[in-house]
# Entry
Amino acid sequence: MRDGVEREGAPTKGTARVPGVSLSVADLFTLLWDALADLLGTATAAVLLRRTARRATQHCPELAELVVVREGLEYRYSLPAAWHTPTGEAHAALRRLVVELLPLLAELTGSVAARHLAQVRELRDAGLIPPQEGRT
# Structure
């Protein structure tokens, strides 16, 4: 558990990431969640991800299986089963989620959130977040 977030099927803290090995979509979502929660807080991350998942479901029906719930003061999410193994369809669904998310973040934070997410190398390497110009 981190920052009041309990993850169902999330990678264990301290798990080594092997260079050159593809992360599952579940791992990538966890990185996205962590980055959003670090910047905006867990409540805002939960609201934004639920909203974007709902909007993106028309393009990727499996996003209906993405559930973010509040339990007391903490948030827990459950991911589509297909997200635990690297597949093209699962990656496309996460990409669609991010496509819906980025304009909302830009409206709320300008370029701050996009720059923050672009600092997560794995999200950039997976093609989910474009690199930011002027980034150090």
Observations:
- The chain has one domain: 22-125.
- The helical segments are 25-40, 42-56, 88-109, 112-118, 121-125.
- The chain has a mean pLDDT of 84.
- Strands lie at 5-7, 67-71, 74-78.
